[in-house]
Amino acid sequence: MVASAIVTSVWFASIGRLGADALLVFPSAGHPLKALTFQAPTMSTFIGPQLGDASISRSGPVVLLDGDMCNPTGVSAPGAIILTTAAAVANAACSLEVQYLALLPSGAAAVIAPSLDTVPNVWMYAQDGTHGARTRHQPMLFVNIGVDADQYDALTRFAIGQNATVAPDVNAWQDTLSSWYYQLFVRILPSAVLIGSGVAAAIYLVGHMRILAQAYEGSVPSNCRSSGRYATFVRQSVGVPHVVLTIEATTSTLCGVVLAIGGFCSTANLQQPVVLYFGALMTGWSFASSVLAAHRWTASVTDVMPFQDVSWLTRVVRGDYRLASILLVVLPILCETASSTAYSMYVLSPLVEAGVSLMLFILQLAVGLNVLTSVLRYYLLANDVQRQTAVAIGNPQTAFKTVLARLGRCALGMSLSMVLVCCGTLLMGASHKFLFSPSGWTLSFSLSYAGRALDTAFRVAMFRPRSARRVVSSNSAAPNATPARSK
User: Fold this and answer.
1) Interval 248-267: pLDDT, tens
2) 3-state class of 86 per DSSP?
3) Whose CB has fewer CB within 10 Å in the chain, the N or C terminal residue?
4) CATH number of 179-390+397-463
């Protein structure tokens, strides 16, 4: 026991004092935790006493809570300091306000919620829409501390029953979340690109629909037109460009507006469930849109290089295996939407979250590298193929080459953006401790959000509509022909 106490003292001696008011101390004489302090910011700026309030220090004996923080039945700790287990914090399926109000009748002076391998507390602006109307002026202190596994083990072994004093600390995340680089790279630039791309997608979609309308007028005599025939004409003519632009006009604009308003954890402008739901920026829809864009690129490049050996994934993206192609589009949407919904409701299992993130990472990386390989192969071989074709048929196919070159540039940018998203995701999954540090959080989400925004921009640019007049004139030459889809 003496040896354990000595080792514990060495563990905690490395923590040091992190601020003038950074107090979670154990003043009992001779105790192994004596005179050691932890960084202890409040769980939210809208819950309980805050730094700067009068009489914010709380003292009392430590009791351990290892139950449901959302419904702590039978918990009575008048004047005590409740130390929850890390499992209780991780499994709490409710908002911070609900946890606080559920623990308030216990009479505790303070509640300490430990988080493993984190710098507390990135969710400092979390609020359920009430902005602290029910919780801000209550007397019970609610703080978060960051510990590693050894420190957590020592706390749960030695702190129970001992007297402790706790007071709220300055949150180490406050300067980071309000910094110019966080606001610029996590909030301003990605949201601006997303909103701009969403607006452009809406404009392009209108252009495509105008092309369809003018093609309909050019191919159907006026005395044969009707709303039903026009609806049939549109339904038969709608293709990948219309679907992708519809997705981008809605999801990208919505994500951009939410990110611009909320700043992803850096403001209290949005309710926490909204922040949690849009934290992934609707990655499932983004990936589905990328697959559809890759389908258009792959189908187009096949016309230039029809005899090139292609991989199984290329065939799936191209649509050769219909069921697999549909699953590649639909499954990520369903999984990501379900996980984001569960996350916003505080009921997402860490294992499920990790599984969905791993699936999206693998798919993003595989499709991104596949498109990148096909673009590079096109640039290496297409010029020779097109030159040989031009010599054989006496037609340089200038217009087709121009369209394909534009598609190639957009596909290249899209594939590199997908790889950039994967780099950010890889950093998030590589180390929990690195992710929940100010520098790791900023770098990871800067890369991921930049890739997500650029991915959208390149997809939208890929489906810029052609001139409606040119399409109408070509359709007028063959009025009985099946209407061509917009490129």
Assistant:
1) 999 999 999 999 999 999 99
2) helix
3) N
4) 1.20.1070
